[in-house]
Fold:
Amino acid sequence: MDQEHHAGHFACHSCDASLTGQRYILRDDEPHCLACYEAKFANTCEQCKEKIGCDSKDLSFKERHWHEKCFKCSACTTSLADRPFATKEEQLYCSDCYDERFAARCDGCQGVFKAGMRKYEYRGQQWHEECFLCVECKQPIGAKSFIPRENQVVCVPCYEAKYAQRCTKCSDVIRRGGVTYKGNPWHKECFTCTSCGKQLAGLKFTSKDEQPYCADCYGELFAKKCTKCTKPITGFGGL
Structure:
């Protein structure tokens, strides 16, 4: 306080009561007795609506104020002093009560997503990392590739082992492209002439005893010959 006061004139700026030997508080360099300071300047508690006195701890959050004893969870009334908390519609909640009432939940186990948990989202649903599983092997998908099947997810190894098309010739999984002939799937590179091994995809071919042959080989091996020109008489289908 910059001003000097004679002992007989050292008084409360608001009520003029003597402050000699009394506790007081300065505001804008003006002394106030405790009663006047609390009446004019103390914050009002959000919970009990009483003034937060000079001898009470004032806890504040987003320009709102509470007595320490009033700063508690709206649901379980646990004190929130020195504890993590969250707000919903202006109400305070301890982290447990907030999670129980408002936190997003896993579509697998229905448990809540706590702070720091990794969340996997797919087709409008969300899972804990340990709940986002392959429907076949029950192992977590994690960052691995997967394939959707009937609203479920299947890891690539399980999908290939159980559901993927396999080549009629080599029995390996057909991962891309492929050729279908008479209802059977083939790798493009496996769909070849039974005689010469030429790839048949995009070419005219026919079959003999369920085996495919290119036009040239079929003509040479199986077709009847024209009695006049001796060339094979063929009629070929295609893919």
Summary: The longest strand covers residues 24-27. The chain has four helices and 16 strands. The mean pLDDT is 85.
